[in-house]
Amino acid sequence: MNDQQPRLPNRQTPFSDAFVAFIPTDWAPYPAELPDRLPAAEFTEHRRDTISAAFPGERLVIPAGPLSVRSNDTDYRFRPHSAFAHLTGLGSDREPDAVLVLEPSFTDADDPAEASGVDAEGHTATLYFKPRAPRTDPEFYADARYGEMWVGTRDSLEELEALTGLPCRPLAELPAALTLHIDRVDTRVVREVDDRLTKLLDELRRSNAVEFDPCVDAELATALSELRLIKDDFEIGQLQLACDDTAVGFEAVVRDFPTAVAQGRGERWCEGVFGLHARHRGNDVGYGSICAAGDHANTLHWIRNDGELADGDLILMDMGVEVETLYTADITRTLPVNGRFTPAQRKVYEAVLEAQQAGIDAARPGARFTDVHEAAIRVVARHLHAWGILPVSVEESLDQLNGGHHRRWMVHGTSHHLGIDVHDCAEARQEYYRGGVLRPGMVITVEPGIYLKATDLLVPEELRGIGVRIEDDILITEDGNRNLSDKLPRDPDAVEAWLAGLLPKS
Ligand code: GLY
Ligand code: MN
Ligand code: MN
Q1: Residues 309-338 pLDDT 10s
Q2: If I label 210, which of 222, 258, 306, 327 is the partner at 20 to 30 A Cα–Cα?
Q3: Which of 330, 333, 424 for mutating ligand 1's site (highest number of atoms within 8 Å of CB)?
Q4: How far apart are CA 335 and CA 338, in angstroms?
Q5: Boundaries of each Aminopeptidase P N-terminal domain copy (predicted)?
Q6: What Rg do the C-alpha atoms of the chain give, in angstroms?
Q7: Least-confidence region, from 203-212, 325-334, 380-389
Q8: pLDDT value for 367
Q9: E strand or H helix at 92, and its extent?
């Protein structure tokens, strides 16, 4: 047996010497033409420059992350870490194990000690990744995770350079690049993404007696998160595309309501139909779809989706298409399965819509992030009070220190930032997020709800089991806002008219 024999799974037939000699022969050459530059690449340089300016003289290490095991030797579909995607423009399933390194460009490159951090002039970006192996390498046929025969033709160094506009080097060179001057160049890594890389860096720091406080790594993650608070034109275009594709998916689900009712486990059917369109039009769903009929709508993160869909029910669907660049929509509509709201359903729906409109109206440049929630929740509390549900006055409930009773029926916030992550900018500092001010280019959700559980004895009987959320994706503009998800109707009459056009005539 040949000495190139790779370690094989216990069910795999060993490769003979004859096979190893035969397999690399008689293949057409790889295409000579390089791929076009990714449209995002026009924007990524500016993003990298911004992060470079925040950390002069320091080495910045931003990993894509490894493949992650779903079970045994099968992996989840790869999705790069969002900071990596943002700085490289790589989306879909590119590129497991890759690492972006921003290397400080010192005035005297050979001796960083001569150049104090502030003398460093920006950074040079290099993308380290595992380029495809030649067909003579066992990887080609024997590596189920990376081999061309198993996962398709992966990029060469030149191809990924052409796509991203970044200099690319083999991953095998990364340890040496990270070791260079490690005692003199402060290094920061996004720690939680790639355990093996983080361990390697920590070990290099230890063995070179580099003093190190893990806070420095956390500061990089924070800066990368805050870098995404304001979206550039490319990102806004991608979020609009994600919303438009999501509207197409919602429509397809509605058309299938009668089938979902007839098949049983209708919630799953809705999830599946939306998932089909998310995969067909984009990369995937941006988060686990919530398809919650009847009282399930009152479970905020109902992603089990194994319930029935019945004529007369509302179904709350919180779903978003993630496009190939990984930007995702996050849209909720609560719809009557048979096309018409009952009076009780409409009463709750209209209250939530009024709250949402109050939130959208408050989402203006210069407003506080919390103004949106405060505007929406005031309307929610007022309706709960009018229905005799709230055990205290509206003002007492809205008192943040001593009240909060209304939260029994809407425990979640009204807004979050939206982008590559559905809950984008999650590591931004509090003063720039919840304590921050809305600025043009931010994209937030406005998503109030009222959730009246079937088991809630404080709720009038005719309203029990009704849960409504309406969620839209709102771009803050110079003079107000733009609803990116307005292709899906919200007004109850418009919703009924839209449903009438999609459902069979009865
Ligand atoms: N779909 C998650 C959320 O609305 O935040
Ligand atoms: Mn949502
Ligand atoms: Mn949301």
Answers
A1: 999 999 999 999 999 999 999 999 999 999
A2: 222
A3: 330
A4: 9
A5: 38-198
A6: 26
A7: 203-212
A8: 98
A9: none
Q: Alpha helices, DSSP H only, in 390-479?
A: 394-398
What separation in Å is there between the alpha carbon of 307 and the centre of ligand 2? 19
SS3 call for 75: strand
Nearest alpha-carbon partner for 471 in 382, 310, 352? 352
Cβ atoms of residues 188 and 59 within 8 Å: yes
Whether 318 lines ligand 1, by a CB cut-off of 6 Å, is yes
**Cα(85) to centroid(ligand 1), Å:** 21
End-to-end CA separation in angstroms for the chain: 71
Q: What is the pLDDT of residues 12-50, one digit of tens each?
A: 789 999 999 999 999 999 999 999 999 999 999 999 999
Alpha-carbon separation of residue 70 from 67, 78, 285 (angstroms): 9, 11, 18
Question: Quick one: which of 368, 366, 380 has its CA closest to 447?
Answer: 380
What is the distance in A from the centroid of ligand 1 to the CA of 415?
9
- In angstroms, the CA 374 to CA 372 distance is 5
SS (HEC) of 317-384? EEECEECCCCCECCEEEEEECCCCCCHHHHHHHHHHHHHHHHHHHHCCCCCEHHHHHHHHHHHHHHHH
Strand partners, 126: 101
Closest C-alpha to ligand 1, atom 4: 330
What distance in angstroms lies between residue 406's CA and the mean position of ligand 1's atoms?
Answer: 20
Query: Do strands 168-170 and 123-129 pair parallel, antiparallel, or not at all (unpaired)?
Result: parallel
Residue 117 has pLDDT above 60, yes or no: no
Question: Does the global pTM surpass 0.70?
Answer: yes
DSSP state letter for 488:
S
Kindly state the DSSP code that residue 504 receives in the 8-state scheme.
P
Tokens of 156: 């060469």
Residue from 471, 472, 485 to probe ligand 1 pocket by mutation (most atoms less than 8 Å from CB): 471
Contact criterion met (CB below 8 Å) for 55 and 70 = no
Cβ neighbours of residue 372 closer than 8 Å, sequence gap 6 or more: 359, 360, 362, 363, 414, 415, 438, 444, 446
C-alpha–C-alpha distance, residues 429 and 446, integer Å: 21
Structure tokens at 359: 């939130």
- How many whole angstroms separate alpha carbon 258 and alpha carbon 290? 19
